[in-house]
Amino acid sequence: MRDQLDPQHDILWFDDGNVVVAARGMSFKLHKSVLALHSTVFLELFDSLDTSESHLHGGCPVLCVNDYGPDLARLLLVVYGSDRRYFARDKPLSFSELRSVALLAQKYQIEEIISEACACLKIAFTAQMNDEAYWERPAEYIRSGPTNPLWCEDRDLVGVVSLARAVRCPSVEVMALYHCCRIGAGVLFSGVQYDDMEVELSREDLRTCVNATDLLYQHNTYVMNALTDMFAYPSETPRIIPCRTSADCKNALGLLIASGLQNEQFSSPRALECLDRWIDEQSEMCYGCREALKNVVNERRKEVFDQLGAMFGVEPWPPVDS
Ligand SMILES: [Zn+2]
């Protein structure tokens, strides 16, 4: 046992507790039965505690763990139910907070917290291509989307990849790797710092991202070429409603292509982004032409999506967990 305990947590120091948990920088007086109810790992640790007189603190056995105190406090507050809305707050939870709770939940095998964390990650890193609001501006959504429960900076994407693997959430792993391909080498190679731990992508992951970025540029060109193909061969894009203003529509399509070129939409790795609103808002094309163009673009986006598993080494794709 440590000679001196670190400072006691304000809330998680119960007078009627029967075990002291000594973490790095913080200690807790807790109830064995409560922890054992949620975690068989704690149950086993309690069984192996030294209960001889010299190892007690105030009559309680002491369990020393190497967890960072503030992180363990977050997990324990969820376990004790005083933070039941932890994963469904009015304000988004920062990724670093979710990460610390999820990793400790994984270490102590607290399944309900792991699944809550995964559910939260799957909203921020959805593998559902029909979520238009998300795919219109995924980079902005991940940072501060109105219905996103998570606040995630670009540098966190490296941390998301690593966490998704730790909690076995392959769809999130792939989608986070996809997002890694748009943030640029500077962020990707420098990693991210959490409390006292630095997380970096492995050399293998970096190689995968570099290769995938090249592919995504090509795939994006394929998606965007739906516009130029329609411009060059208008009759080959099937329309449910026939076009009666083909000259005007062709002119409008030309302006849309010009706008895409000016916004660098043709030279980007963002192959999955939804163009529906852009096509609707910026073009003077007739309804039939707009719907026809959106259909072709979305079919091509879906083709790109179907290749993500192979691109990032996750099979089957999409995984059953998504
Ligand atoms: Zn038309």
Question: Could you explain how this protein is built, in words?
Answer:
The structure is a single chain. The protein has 322 residues and is α/β, with parallel strands linked by helices. It has a five-stranded mixed beta sheet. Strands 6-7 form a two-stranded parallel ribbon. It has a two-stranded antiparallel sheet with strand order 8-9. Strand 2 and strand 3 (26-30) form a beta hairpin. It folds into three domains: 1-67, no CATH class; 115-201, no CATH class; 214-303, no CATH class. The mean pLDDT is 91. The chain has helices at 32-38, 40-47, 69-79, 95-107, 111-124, 132-136, 138-144, 156-166, 170-180, 185-190, 203-232, 246-262, 276-282, 287-306, 308-312, and strands at 8-13, 19-24, 26-30, 56-57, 60-68, 93-94, 150-151, 192-194, 197-199. It has 15 helices and nine strands. The structure holds zinc ion. Zinc ion (ZN) binds next to helix 12 and helix 14.
In a few lines, what is going on in this structure?
This protein has helices at residues 32-38, 40-47, 69-79, 95-107, 111-124, 132-136, 138-144, 156-166, 170-180, 185-190, 203-232, 246-262, 276-282, 287-306, 308-312, and strands at residues 8-13, 19-24, 26-30, 56-57, 60-68, 93-94, 150-151, 192-194, 197-199.
Set out the fold topology:
Elements: E1 8-13, E2 19-24, E3 26-30, H1 32-38, H2 40-47, E4 56-57, E5 60-68, H3 69-79, E6 93-94, H4 95-107, H5 111-124, H6 132-136, H7 138-144, E7 150-151, H8 156-166, H9 170-180, H10 185-190, E8 192-194, E9 197-199, H11 203-232, H12 246-262, H13 276-282, H14 287-306, H15 308-312
Helix pairs in contact: 1-2, 3-4, 4-5, 4-8, 8-9, 11-12, 11-14
